[in-house]
Write the structure tokens for this entry.
Amino acid sequence: MNKRVALRCLSILSFLALWWLGSLFSAPEILPGPVVIGKTIVDNFTTPGPEEKSAGFHMAVTLARILFTFSVAMALGIACGLIMGLRRKVELAFGYWIPLALTIPTLLAVFLCVIWFGFSEAGGLCAVIMTVTPFVAVNMLAGTKALDKELIDMAHAFKADRSLIIRKVLIWQLMPYIFSAFRYAFGMTWKIVALAETFGLKYGIGYMFTFWFEQFNMAQVMAWIMLFVAFMLVLEHGVIGRVEEKIFAWRPAHAG
Amino acid sequence: MTSQAVVIEGLGKKFPTPSGLGEFTVIDSLSLQIARGSFASIVGPSGCGKSTLLNIIAGIEPHDSGEVRIASEDGANPRARIGYVFQSPRLLNWLTVEDNIKFALEAQSIGRGDWGERVRKYLDMVGLAGQERNFPLKLSGGMQQRVAIARALAIEPDILLMDEPFSHLDEITARKMRVDLMRILERARPTILFVTHSLREAVFLSEEVYMMSIKPARIFKHLRVEVPRPREPEDPRLFDLEKDLVKEFFAVLEQDNR
Amino acid sequence: MKSFTPEKLPSFLSAIGLLLLWKALSLFFLPTFLPSPLELLNTIVSIFSTASAYLVIGKTLQRVFAGLIFSMLIGSSVGLIMGLRRSVGTFFDSWIMVLLTFPSISWAFLAVLWFGLSDVAPIFTVVLIVFPYVTMNVWEGTKALDPELTDMATVFRANRFLLLRKVFIPQLMPYVFSSLRISFALSWKIALVSEAFGASRGVGKELLYWFQGTRADMMLAWGASFMALMVLIDALILRPWENRVFSWRQTAAT
């Protein structure tokens, strides 16, 4: 176990070292070094930035948008996936919309929604929800197809009522699918929020990307990218990983 | 009327053919009566519809013709309690052993106050005292099947259905389980309908043996095993009985194939 | 073409319903805001009756395929290297994990700042987003390599190079391929984003141009036709190719 941790640390350190070396040999507008970026990030938090809004403000705005759209997309996606999985007619009628929706490029979805909703908050958020929901629905649909009929028969043989079957038999079988949808949908959501903030929303991390990009300020652009990536890494691996471990404690440990 | 726990008359069941275009008859005019408190085995080759018969009795498969009547102990309660032990344990792997049993208790609307006591009593009966908090996947196949048996017994059923419960276990574990089953059932005596493809198992475990043939499924012979309990697995009387039954079986199978 | 079975009826009906709903909605808005199905079709036809439209599509396709090919090559190589030694794998795992976390716009921005408005920028963006996926797939593949085959080849004194060519790479091909279609789907979407930021000419640029002109009808026309083309490429080229590569895996019919 220790070897793995050591390798990971070495990996991170060597990356920083390479970066620093690279920055020594290039102009600061091309590749600013890690120290410069670090300082920029700190400055962004401690001093009010453009329009008197600090980095903390933008991060909060982005996080709020992520949480909102993610919750809505999960709820809608799970509902749609379940309905399609449990009612064959519905699946036959509307199933093909999902691959269609999944093919729509995010850029187009953002552009269209922003225009249709008049450059408002609703437009950007709608684009995100529209893109993530079919993804969640597909996962749930796959989950319903994998339900073990033998266990459902067993529950019927013991005369369990519908509520009991849903609570104790179905939901747990669907958990892995809900979870994998959760993980990947989360990854998708904030990338699309970032895109929506770039083109159609005011304030937020994506908004700051564009702002500094238009000023050709490489240091700031990189600073904001690093901030975003670090933030998301902490959320994805820190928080989600922990929750997953608890929920799946009943599974036998994987070899290796 | 309440002396018979299970009465089946003229039962018929059809399944659609794999291509979906026609039907074939799995069960045809099957009649059967099981007396209360008896241990009855149904023996037949694989695929003759034994599991389907059990599923119909349990109410999880509909039948096409005929009647199935199940009476509870006191006749006053129209819905008899049915416990079912399947070929595979069919446990809910994400629930602990005790929660698996409580699942059945909740399904049967048994009062929560009784749960703790029943879980302890029946886990102890199957030899799994202390395993309450474990998850099924941490137990061996034999132990999982014992949990399934405890689950079925815990609801104190009028009728216990068992569908080849030991066929997926290795021979040594299966032998031990048969002996243990006899011991357990001395303490709790529901009416038992035990399905198996093994004549030896049927003859060892039960008092009434019904022999079933295939295509379509029907009962062609019924006999009583008069050997008193407790029985030894190596009892020569059981062995003789088995020999005779095997002969009869082959005769019938040959007739069916003509 | 599959025959029209009763099972297809619900989807057919819902498609008709959708088209009717669309037509009904479009009556309330300007055609530049929400065109009706027929108006959209007209717009598409008029766009593609000019030669320049094909040049635009061609440019984007060039970048998509270049990006895809580089991603597959780089991704497979890195994945293979990561698989050869446990420690190497763990070392690069963190880098790949971080790379997977980058949003496409971040690379799009950096690429334009570094490479200007050239072809390199979109291709670079595509490669940096897509190759980590390929790497992860191929790395998984190396973990599943059959040691018995390696042993057999060693007993027959196969050298490193032969081992690589005839034993490792064929076993890894399914993993390389399984990422092909997904990588393609990802590549063209990223190419569009990247072009929107900085390219001289391309479908993404068109989308941006019409976005800035608030012309939803033109965006829909370009978007829908490009999407259709991508779906066609996937259905007519990639999927059959994938089926052929995997045909040896078909066991006796179940």
Notes: The longest strand of chain B covers residues 4-16. The mean pLDDT of chain B is 85. Chain B has seven helices and nine strands. Chains B and C do not touch (no CB pair under 8 Å).
